[in-house]
Structure formats: structure tokens, C-alpha cells
Amino acid sequence: MSYCIPAEYLCDGKWDCSDGHDESKTQNCGPHRFCKNMFNCTKTQICIHVHETCDGLVNCPYEDDEQLCTLSRHIYPAGCLCLALAMQCVNQTIHFNLLASSFQFYIMIFEDSNIYFEDHWDARNKLPFAAVLMILNSGQTNPCVYLEQSNNLLHIDFKSNHIPTLHQKCFEQSLKLKLVKISHNLISKLSDCLFCNLALLIHLDLSHNLLSFISSSFVLRSPQMTLLSLQNNILNTANPNYFSNAHFKILQVENFRLCCTLKGNLKCTAKIPWYTSCKHLLPSESIKIVFLCILCLIFSLNVASIL
């Protein structure tokens, strides 16, 4: 006798055919099973028709057929792509200031795009749920617009935006940040307490900028910080106080002279050449005293010659 059973009865752990054919591991339920043009219930081999998802009736053991159903009502800018809670816009011009509704995405990626907001409040209202925000090569010279009023951000990446500076209160409200990447920009200095009180911060990437000065207290009270990336900057390598107050574990640089400014058990990615040592690269206190004495002697001789 032949008869039909619903597709969701296949591989559900129960015999619905008299000979158990619907639960056969060799024909229907082995590791090769996949749900072509159907919905595969998570952690199972159960397949259901796509029309049975988001219909208000639970058909999967873990109820995943009724999850994320509000996504069907999400809107996103024309020309962009979305997948579940992520949105990506590449080579687009987006006037958020002309759009009335907000965007309920947790991951937002903008690349080679022109983005317009009315002000920082508009940015906050249009991107209220963003946890990962990546704005790459999009001419956004003021990242603080996105940070000052955001309490949800975990990961930001503002690579290649010609950012000239970061003002002191830029990260004051973004206390959940774990990853901050602002590489390939035009930042020349880091002021006091710029990255203070970021208790969850793990990685700070400021590589490929124009940094010539950093305050010794630019990072404070960030106990989880592991990696500081400063490759390809123009820092004065003779300043021993750059990292005197920092509590990161690894400094990523290509200039081995900066490694000599580290104290304690901090690690450095640049290798000091075998033919030199930090003692030869940083002036000792005795050398400083001798140098000052020579300057004083030269000054005294000049005064005496004038008299």
C-alpha cells in the first residue's frame, strides 16, 4: 500500500510509514540529507515548506521557523543588499536625512559610498540598533557623528576616510566597544584620555596614519585591551613615555625602536636586530647629564667671549 505523508514527517524520529522508510538513514535521513527549496529546522534533519515559516504555527522542535519573522517588514536603501540582520551598501549614495524611517539592522557595512545625515541625532535615530558599523573609503571625516550618541556599538571600522583628527569626547558614550579600527587615515596626534573608560576594548587599530605624537594617557582604564596596532606612523621613536600608562599586552609596530619604550612584560611584534640593543637606542640618565653639562659649558663660553 502506498500513501503520502507531509514532508515535515521525514526524519523526525518517528515511523510514519509501516516499514519505517521515512526514517531510513540510507535513503532519506543520512548526513547527505539537505532540504532543497525547503526550510531546514535547526539541529535536525526536518524539512518544512517555506510557506510554513512565519505563519504563527510552530513546526520545528526549536521554533526557529517562527524566529526573525519581523525581518520581512524591514526596509533598506535602494541599491543595497540585506541578509537577515545585516545590510551592505557598496558604491551607493544614501541620503539618510531624506528618509523618514530607521533601519533595524545590527550589522551595517558601507563601502565606497556617499552617506548623508542631518546631524548626529539623525545618525543615532536612523541606525538605532547597529552593533557593527563599517564605513570604508566613504569620505566620512568625522566618525564622532556615529559614536557620540550610540550605546550599542561593539565593532567600528572607519578605514580610509581621510579622518584628520579625533576630538576628546568622541568615544565617551560608546562604552561597549570591543574593536576599534581607524586605520589608513590622516590622524596626527592622540589627546589625553581619548580612549578612556572603554572597559571592554580588546583591539585598537590606528595603523597607517600620520601619528607624530600620542599622549601617555591616551588609553586609560581599559583593562581588557590586548592589541594596539600602530604600524606605519611617524612617531618620534626616542620618547620613552608613550606607553607609560597603557595596559595593553601586545604592541604591533614595524619600527623596532618603539619596542624599546615598552615597560614590564608587554610584547612587541617588531624584532630588535641582533647587532644592537635598546640600551644603544634610548639615552641613559648619565648621557643626558653629560649632554646638559656640555650645553651649559658652551653657553658660558659664548657669554664670556661677548664680555
Fraction of residues in helix: 10-25%
- Give the low-pLDDT segments: none
Strand content: 15-25%
Distance between the termini: 125 Å
> The biggest beta sheet, please?
10 strands, mixed
**Alpha plus pi helix count:** 5
How do the helices and strands follow one another from N- to C-terminus? EEEEEEEHEHEEEEEEEHEHH
Describe the structure.
This protein is an alpha/beta fold and 307 residues long. Helix content is 13%, strand content 16%. The chain has 5 helices and 16 strands. The protein has helices at residues 120-126, 144-147, 256-259, 278-281, 285-306, and strands spanning 39-40, 47-48, 81-83, 86-90, 93-95, 107-111, 114-116, 132-136, 155-157, 179-181, 189-190, 203-205, 213-214, 227-229, 250-252, 267-268. The strands form 4 sheets. A 10-stranded mixed sheet has the order 3-4-6-8-9-10-12-14-15-16, with no helix packed on it.
What would a concise description of this structure say?
The protein has 307 residues and is an alpha/beta fold.
Considering the chains and any ligands shown, give keywords for the structure.
single chain, 307 residues, alpha/beta, 10-stranded mixed beta sheet, two-stranded antiparallel ribbon, 5 helices, 16 strands, 13% helix
